[in-house]
Amino acid sequence: MNAWFPRVTTHSLAIVISVLTYVLTTRVERDRRPPSIAIAWVLGLIALPYVVLPMYLMFGRRKLPRRISPPLEKRPRSNHWAEDLIESFGLSPAASSDVRFHRDGLESRIGLIATIERATQRLDVCTYILGDDALGREITGFMVACAQRGVRVRLLLDGVGALQLPRKWAQRLNDAGIETAIFSPLLARRTQGPRNLRNHRKWAVADAERLWAGGRNLAAEYFIGSAGVAPWSDLSFELAGPAAAAAAAQFEADWAAAGGKPASPIMAAECHYSGCRTQFLPSGPDQMEDTVHALLIDACFQATERMLAVSPYFVPDASLETAMRLAVRRGVKIDLCIPAKSNHILADFVRNRSLRALSNAGVSVHLLSYMNHAKAVVFDESIAICGSCNLDSRSLLLNYESAVVFYGTPQIEWLAHWIEDLKPGARPFDATPPGLWRDVCEGLLLTVAYQL
């Protein structure tokens, strides 16, 4: 009894310290978390304090230390609620841009090469993965040629994405005149924040005037496929206009966070663009709000007719799932296109609970017979969103992501038709209730779904 009592007291003290650490850190940093995530951390700290407390200290923070923002200036309201919402986050206003979407990987490859070749002063490339394959080597070759004609070329690669590259790839690129930086390397502390906050942004910016962006990493499966293997279906686009300058400014912030040498501002040429209104929308730990997540929820309540969505992974948090359910119950027609089998087995497993709830509420879930990596959402004739953000909690609440919001009718309809064309040949989701063990396993995995 005497030996047992100190052990119980020590364990109780460990639990108290663990929970207190969680409470104090979240309150000091004013870290707002979805209830399911907060409950998962607290239960873990109570059940296994010696294991979960170190995990929380390493991976638990979701936002970087918050800067105190000045009060928002009163400004005239725009003609669109989404423009006002995005500007309220302190982000760039919407402006006219010339836009060209890519229907497949071949068009995207041509657009990416054209963006690289048009750079005359600076080329900034950000990607999660640079493939050690034919496509990766080809694009690297064009970047080297760009550097050789006197353009400053910078490549920002995520720390996890860099793991698959040969050890000396960075030195070879530097020798060829390309500056490289690794964002949040796993074994270094150059980048602020936990190691699980990944940079998933994907773009190439030429002279802060032209932007190539979307969901494609710079690897063969996203563009041309490999021998005997078809490329994944995906979306990307080219854009010329102020949204490109906003992407360049965001790249500069990411580059500095990764320890890169800053660049001098580029004097933009006086250009007038007659295309649709677009707005650059970054999301992630460096933003005061969960910007894309907030826009999606607001759009669900603003929608009156339709929501079309495509995403490779679908593990929404409770608030987005609820917003979609309430929208469809109000009569909004919602079509969700996702692969029947993606390249992430756990994400495919845990998504089923949300899919059953949404399907039973009236959402049409279309399971594609091939891998689709595209990320886009269309609401009514009002807005369309396309970029690197998946419809899962990791993308919407943890990763550094980016998207472009389109307000022009031709661009909205182009994306709507692209998503609609996915539906023929897809099979409906089976919303049959699961057995006990599957239901328990889904619930357990969903407690960490935001980390998947």
Furnish the topology, listing elements before pairings:
Blueprint (H helix, E strand, L loop, with lengths): L3 H25 L6 H13 L1 H11 L21 H8 L6 E8 L2 H14 L3 E6 L6 H15 L3 E7 L10 H7 L2 E6 L19 E4 L3 E5 L21 E5 L1 H16 L18 E8 L7 H12 L3 E5 L3 E2 L2 H12 L3 E7 L5 H6 L1 H10 L2 E5 L7 E4 L3 E5 L3 E2 H5 L3 E6 L2 H12 L6 E2 L7 H11 L6
Parallel strand pairs: 2-3, 3-4, 9-11, 10-15, 11-12
Antiparallel strand pairs: 1-7, 1-8, 2-5, 5-6, 6-7, 8-16, 9-13, 12-17, 13-14, 14-16
Helix pairs in contact: 1-2, 1-3, 2-3, 5-6, 9-10, 10-12
- Tally of extended strands? 17
Describe the main β-sheet briefly: 15 strands, mixed
Spell out the CATH superfamily of the largest domain.
Endonuclease Chain A
Q: Give me the secondary-structure category.
A: alpha/beta
CATH topology of the largest domain: Endonuclease, Chain A
> How many distinct helices?
15
Strand order of the largest sheet: 4-3-2-5-6-7-1-8-16-14-13-9-11-12-17
Q: Ranges with pLDDT <50 over ≥5 residues?
A: 66-72
CATH class group of the largest domain: Alpha Beta
Shape: globular
- The CATH architecture classification of the largest domain is 2-Layer Sandwich
Domain module count: 3
Oligomeric composition of the shown chains: single chain
Mean pLDDT: 87
Distance from first to last alpha carbon: 43 Å
Strand content: 15-25%
